Amino acid sequence: MEHVTAAPHPRSETASARSGRRSLALALLFGALGAAVALLSTRQRWSQGTATVAGGAFPLTARGSDVTGVPAALAIVGLAALVAVFAVRRTGRLAVSVLLALSGAGIMATALFGASDGSALDEQAAKASGDTSATVASFTHTAWPYAAAAGGALILLAGLLALRYGRGWPAMSGRYERDGTPRPRRAPRPADPDRPEEMWKALDRGEDPTGAGPA
After folding, report:
1. CA nearest neighbour of 108 among 161, 81, 163, 146
2. 71-87: string of b/e by CB count within 10 Å (b at 16+)?
3. How many Å apart are CA 84 and CA 6, to the nearest integer?
4. N or C: which end of the chain has fewer CB within 10 A?
């Protein structure tokens, strides 16, 4: 008795294709939005406080880039990894997806740590007071470090989506890839004896282009 293998149901193939397109769209959205939020957040004020100087209390503020440059750098790495996901396949795509996820996790960790880091303000307090041992007083932080952490979370989600569904995502066209395989050469077109240049070549060889015999 012959065993007949059932063909995959068209509906299952359609559902798989839709899932792949949906995950791809979400990864692009999360990655791009997360990087934009992280970069924007590092340019905003993260912390503030006061320093005691001769004339009284002196207000101090620190932007995210003053506290730490890691979130901005990792946001750029995440963007590059997001683009590279479509330029590589198989093992390369897996490695880039891991890099994308790690970039998001790194942004989250450094942003949350930076929310309570007052070293940037301490440096400003030392400069303002002229005392190298001076520290900032009444230290407070804004919501921007948490916004940067949220951007990192979005990049992390993009990386996790790439790890889960990246195998089915499209890649760059094969004509842009160089695998070392020699390309087949086009066969030369047969010469047309009726063309004027071919007739002159025949005369130079001592042949009769009309086929009547030697010239």
Report:
1. 146
2. bbbbbebbbebbebbbe
3. 38
4. N
